[in-house]
Amino acid sequence: MIVCKFGGTSVADAGAIDRAAGIVKAKLDRDPVVVVSALSGVTNELLEVARRAAAGDLLLAVTNVETLRARHLAEAQALIGDSAEYDDMVAEISVGFDELAHLAEAFSTLGFVTPRSLDAVAAIGEVLSSQMVAAAFRHRGVPAEWVDARTVMITDDHFTRAAPNVNAIAAASREHIRPLVAQGKVPVLGGFIGSTTGNVTTTLGRGGSDYSAALFGAALEAEAIEIWTDVDGMLTADPRVVPMARLIDRIRFDEAAELASFGAKVLHPSTIAPAVQRGIPVFIFNSRRPEGTGTMIAFDAPRHPVRAIAGKRNTTLVKLRTTRMLLAHGFLRSVFEVFERHRTSVDVVATSEVSISVTLDDPARLDDIVADLSVYGDVSVERSRGIVAIVGAGLADGTATLAGALASLGAISVHMASLSATGINFTLVIDDAQVIPAMQRLHAGFFEANA
Ligand code: ASP
Ligand code: MG
Questions:
Q1: Mean pLDDT score of the chain
Q2: What is the C-alpha to C-alpha distance for residues 48 and 271, in angstroms, rounded to an integer?
Q3: Atom 2 of ligand 1: nearest residue by CA position
Q4: pLDDT grade, residue 319 (50/70/90)?
Q5: Is there an atom of ligand 1 within 6 Å of 207 CB?
Q6: At residue 167, what are phi and psi to the nearest 5 degrees?
Q7: Is a pLDDT exceeding 80 seen at residue 365?
Q8: Do strands 144-146 and 186-190 pair parallel, antiparallel, or not at all (unpaired)?
């Protein structure tokens, strides 16, 4: 069994859903279970209806409901207009948006929305997309069967960010999904949505469909999870910065997690942890180019010295020099308490016996932080700094990679360096203006030498 998840752009319209059907059809021998997002942009628009209505703008909210209704009806017409199921689908769409219009009226009367009602509103997107995809797949010869994800994705009642109940999901998967697969059917479920044990609709939080796919995959002990999206996979660098960036064929889970902290937007590894930790590999594929080889994320992919180069601009470097740290204990704690007090998270840290350097993404409270740190020693602030990171599980096996990184940078000055405790991330703080050239040089040094 495999889980195939199609994100919003991969079910954006009739053409995309048609491609998804082709992809699934070619995999029927692997017993696919399909998980889908709402049509792209729909979740934002649904939540906007609720927000507008609660803010008293009922007319605009209702106009948005009708736009959404028209979009779903048009896609249904294009997908299954000539099928016997079309009328049923139209009825489902009408029920969904009539209900939304009533909810909007209620929100505008009340003047507020609760997290519980936001989940009821947002869920309409995945409920309808999954029904539409199931019908469209059947019409294209895939033996699809819609399963209401809320009967399987059992969660707590932390609305808008509900936590899954893994045991209940495993039991419900055995009851509602496995038997269909055993009969040769292709279950189709909405991602992102769930329900409490009392049958109240919940959601897993924005972008939660990947998480749904991983949770269903783990519950079903799937062989693999495929995340079908609009990029070819994870790349060795951001291609807007490094045009020579290339596809990563396999990456370790911990490497992918490091890259996510630098804003790699393909998918957030924490969302796939439930599957990867059970040894289920997760693949990222491009639904516009299904012939691509994608990226495989696995717990124990081979160790490479360097898997990717990442960068981040606009960071602030704060340095504290003091002789009081010499042989003192509790000093670091006092210093970090300053950042805690000002609710500022620190990113990269380096310390020596007489100094501490930290980088901050958010300098909003910098003046107060500097004032409080001055109690402990001389503080200097370097604005306009940036970060480049070299990520690879085998980075610190020997010194060649670290030496190679510094050599590639040439004359670019390094203001601070930090090797992560796990030895998979070597981070260098440089001038902000040098981030792009540094990424290009590092990429050339590690990936383009024998290209
Ligand atoms: N449709 C939901 C969202 O936009 C969930 C997802 O697509 O992952 O947040
Ligand atoms: Mg997503």
A1: 94
A2: 25
A3: 207
A4: very high
A5: yes
A6: -70, -40
A7: yes
A8: parallel
* 225 and 313 both lie in a single domain: no
Report how far residue 395's alpha carbon sits from residue 425's, in angstroms, rounded to the nearest whole number.
7
Residue 185: enclosing H or E segment and its boundaries? none
The whole-number pLDDT of residue 330 equals 82
Which ligand has the nearest atom to the CA of 208?
A: 1
Cβ–ligand 1 contact at 191 (below 6 Å): yes
Residue 270 banded pLDDT, cuts 50, 70, 90: confident
Structural tokens at position 344: 């500022």
- Asked if residue 273 belongs to a domain, the reply is no
Q: Look at residue 332 in the predicted model and tell me its pLDDT.
A: 86
For ligand 2, the distance from its centroid to the CA atom of residue 40, given in whole angstroms, is: 9
- Please tell me if the CB atom of residue 43 comes closer than 6 angstroms to any atom of ligand 1: yes
Write out the two tokens for 108: 């505008």
Instruction: Indicate which atom in ligand 1 lies nearest the CA of residue 206.
Output: 9
Residue 294 lies in a domain: no
Among 230, 257, 290, which residue terminates a domain? 230
DSSP state at residue 360 = E
Q: Does 38 fall in a domain? A: yes
pLDDT band of residue 325 (cuts 50, 70, 90) is low
Ligand located closest to 267 CA: 2
Q: Are 104 and 33 in contact (CB under 8 A)?
A: no
CATH of the domain at 350: 3.30.2130.10
pLDDT band, very low/low/confident/very high, at 326 (cuts 50, 70, 90): low
Question: Among residues 209, 312, 210, which one has the least CA distance to residue 263?
Answer: 312
Residue 333 structural domain: 308-448
Q: Are residues 212 and 317 in the same domain?
A: no
| pLDDT of 257 higher than 70 | yes
Amino acid (1-letter code) at residue 350: A
**pTM score of the predicted model:** 0.90
Query: Which DSSP letter does residue 230 get?
Result: S
Domain endpoint, select from 187, 206, 230:
230
Give the number of the ligand closest to the Cα of residue 123.
Answer: 1
* C-alpha 272 – ligand 2 centre gap (Å): 12
Atom of ligand 1 minimally distant from the CA of 125: 1
Query: In what side-by-side order are the strands of the sheet with 250-252?
Result: 144-146, 186-190, 32-36, 2-6, 224-229, 282-286, 295-298, 250-252
pLDDT digits (tens, 9 = 90+) for 14-71: 999 999 999 999 999 999 999 999 999 999 999 999 999 999 999 999 999 999 999 9
Q: Is the CB of 209 under 6 A from ligand 1?
A: yes
Question: How much is the average pLDDT of 334-360?
Answer: 91
9 with 157, same domain: the answer is: yes
